[in-house]
User: Fold these one by one.
Assistant:
Number 1:
Amino acid sequence: MIPDFLKSPPLGKPWLLYAFLGTSLVLNLTLAFQGDDASTEMAVATAAPAEAVAQVATIAPEAPNVAIPPELVPPLPEPLGVTRRAGTTVFSAPVQGSLSATFQNAPSASPAALSAVYSRLFVWDIDVRRDLHKGDRVDVLFEENEGAEPLVLAARLTLNPGASTERVVDAFRYQAQGDRFASYWSTDGTEVPRRLIDGPLGDYEQITSLLKDRPTHEGMDFKTPIGSDVLAPRAAKVLRVNWNHAANGNCIELRFTDGATAKFLHLNENDVKEGQSVTAGEVIARSGNTGRSTGPHLHYQIEKGGRVVDPVDYHGTLRRKLPAELMADFGKKSAELGAQLETEVATAM
Ligand SMILES: [Zn+2]
């Protein structure tokens, strides 16, 4: 029994209601498309969000007519601040409690997934659990394609809007010349997501899971196509390969000269053997989607003295700047995206 209002666009997908179950820990979400190796442990640690999103992802393509128990059907008013153009949607809303609660009524097949993708952009600048307050504002321009997580084209987070302490963080999707993937850049041409210094991949689509967001998951996940070169970040000795293959898939563990170890999981092909020495920057494998992984990605995990260490702390991070010669082009494209992002604001006045 599905109420009629759930059948009409854009809410014509009752399974989207599963997303409403996951409204607490935004960054603990595992998106089926970003891939993850620790879904089992996650399900234990954060049962509701993990299961909620996993269900959206799993049943979305085949099961649009799953019956929703009446008690799970929340009121779904059409949120204010929604504008649609061909292919893209703008969602603007004041922050209500958590970020996932703020996105709860977003006009998306999976508001929880949209919330997670949005928060991934700003997690480098703010603690989305502590620093967000009621009345702060989110704006996001996105498009959705079946079978993929929402693609954010532009996003803005405004803290303390209207106050003297107002702070606006923008992120515009833009592919810099010479980069293999588009990334997100703020108005002044600074890259929004940080990068590890001498990390395990030369380039990648996005870091989709940070240790601090999900401590039960012991590594960092890089979304990257199968076949991406995986590098030894530092000179090292190969400790072991392909242990616990069912979960890890093809995998490598290195010991760096300082004693820290690094694990690389879900690889497509290994190029190294146990006992071998490798130099910093040497290609040791091709990334993949093997073992317990739901999408092409590299899981990278550091341990030292028997403890898991955050790769962000171990490597340090940097932020790239767009080269000056790209700023005119970026300025034009980000202005177009910014104008679309502000469509709703303009029409609402
Ligand atoms: Zn992982």
Number 2:
Amino acid sequence: MEAERLVTQYGYALLGLTAVVAVLVAVLTFALLRFAAAARNARQVLGEGSSETVLLSAALQDAVTRLKDQERAMSARAAASEQLSAQIVESLTAGLLVVGRAGGVKILNPAGRRLLGVAGDPMGADYRELLDAVPPLRDAIAECLATRRAILRRSLEVPRGDRSAHLGVTVSPLGGGDDAGAICLFSDLTAVVELEEQLRLKEALARLGELTAGLAHEFRNGLATIHGYSRLLAPDALPPAYRPYVEGIRQETEALGQVVTNFLNFARPEKPLFAPVALAVLARRASDELRHDLPGGTTVTVTGEFADIQGDEVLLRQMFGNLLRNAAEACDAAGRTPAIVIDGRVDRARGTCAVTVSDNGPGIAPADRERVFQPFFTTRTRGTGLGLAVVQKIAVVHNGRASVAASAAGASIELTFPLA
Ligand SMILES: Nc1ncnc2c1ncn2[C@@H]1O[C@H](COP(=O)(O)OP(=O)(O)OP(=O)(O)O)[C@@H](O)[C@H]1O
Ligand SMILES: [Mg+2]
């Protein structure tokens, strides 16, 4: 019995122990399961977080790339527009000068440098010094800077070498603020002004011809009548005291008749016969023809470059003849042996051939430079003053011009013709 009781107690103890172990195992399993679930959750949360970061950084990178592309395109556009404005400034056929408020040169394009005869890059130089030799242009810019008002299409006569050039100038105030300066556009109008001058000369010659030819014609008829009557008066039949008067009437009417004939020749409208003419050949031929009329020892040298022009050979020979005769007469009167030079120069850019006839005589006084081409202007006692008027007329008929050129010694008459 005792033994049975002992076994039962032992059995209960074992059973209790087993139950405790079972509970412990269950608790452990539950804890393990919870730990695994927590670990899974943590892994899930962690996984979602990293993909969000990746998305964010990709978007950022995309935006940065797009910004960079835009920046590249903008700087390319800026460079292209800068290049375009530089090209425009470079290739402008008009001169462009931009100055700051203080007078510093900011831009002077190649055409401007050519027109103003500036060699290097004048960037930063003072425009007043730069334009020292072109006072009218300097004054126009100063006026615009001072008044802040635009000067539109003003025509300025500026010195160029030994003659003058004409510039068409527009100056406008530039921008605002402290650095407000002026922008000046200018172009060479010399050819246009010369053309206008030539047209004016042509019209003046035509008017003069029309006005006076009729008068001169009547005058010549009257002179012929007086001369005719004077020839009817036989000097031998007159008392000796009256003979010199009749001689005087004859001589004066003859001389006046010659003047009127010369003038009528001058005023007569020319009907030129144009053909290609080699100016060098023509100049030589004119001097050969005149050889016997010129004082002994006279030399005529033809030098330089000549070109062909469309011209009337007879008129051009007459033109050279008048110039050679004038030169020889001036030298002879000054007691010098005439040394005459006919020099040719071709300017292909302007399409002209310039011919100067120079001598070693006393030259032409500056005050007479414009007047020598006027009909009847003469300083010679036996001159009619028509020689150079005829020269000018022949030059104008050929769409050219005659002018007195500057020369160190003696006279120099320049003729300019358009090339054939
Ligand atoms: N080579 C020269 N040197 C100096 N003076 C000159 C020369 N050529 C012309 N002149 C001046 O110009 C004036 C006008 O010349 P132009 O040939 O027209 O008339 P002219 O010679 O006086 O008379 P003519 O009608 O007989 O030619 C001359 O009187 C002279 O004063
Ligand atoms: Mg003369």
